[in-house]
Model the fold of this input.
Amino acid sequence: MKDAVVRARSPDGGMCPGDELRIMSKSAGQAFEKLVDIIARLRSEGGCPWDREQTHESLKRYLVEEAYEVIDAVDAGDMDELRRELGDLLIQVLFHAQLADENDIFDIEDSINDISEKLIRRHPHVFGKTSVAGIEEVLHRWEEIKAAEPASKDRASVLDGIPRTLPALARAMAVSKRAAAAGFEWPSLAAVVEKLEEEVGELKEELAAGDRERITHEVGDLLFTVVNVARWTKVDAEDALRTMIKRFTARFRQVEEAARESGRPLEEMTIHEMDAVWDHAKQEK
Done:
């Protein structure tokens, strides 16, 4: 069945000539409604006891877990697994909307309408008559539009609104970007690298002094500076570290396999033997 289309409204409320929004096919819409109904039934009297006990608070950890399982599927390049994990993540979204609906606060349609309006409002170069020169201008205008929205006007700091529960590296990147956008920025990448070298030196001094609190402080400074190097080079620090851990894990498992093949516990291998296997594993990648 062909998808239906609707005309898009520009940020000023008018219709955008020639601009149309393709909406989901009838079968996709039916599938979505079926899932919404399933969640509602699980929560209803006679539904699942476990589902009926859940709250916004109790579901938080499952939302995080499902999001990371989606990322794992993307990293693995497994499209079948990605399809399944996106469904699991969607359940979490619909579950929270169902809980709100039961308390007459909002429902999933309200959430969908909110994000649709936000996307149209923040993309005037797509749904309006604004022109942009490239990605950098798109990002700049996005922040300008976002700053003009009511939710942003109530913020006392440009750093307000960054989720405190983000992984530390991801939050550091978000804080760094916000501060830089406000003008708190190094003049060049070379200056950031110079700061990185300075932080390494300060950490060495504190390691020699042995003050654990100062060492912790300097490790934090060093990590935050590394995040700024990543930002300047357009590298996602969280993704870079996750990828590195994946490499480390694969290589370390080869070291473990070498120990098993030698008939010895891993702990009995010398560091030189481990390094030899490690170097060989590096050459294979």
The chain has three domains: 5-121, 155-235, 239-284. The first strand starts at residue 5 and ends at 9.
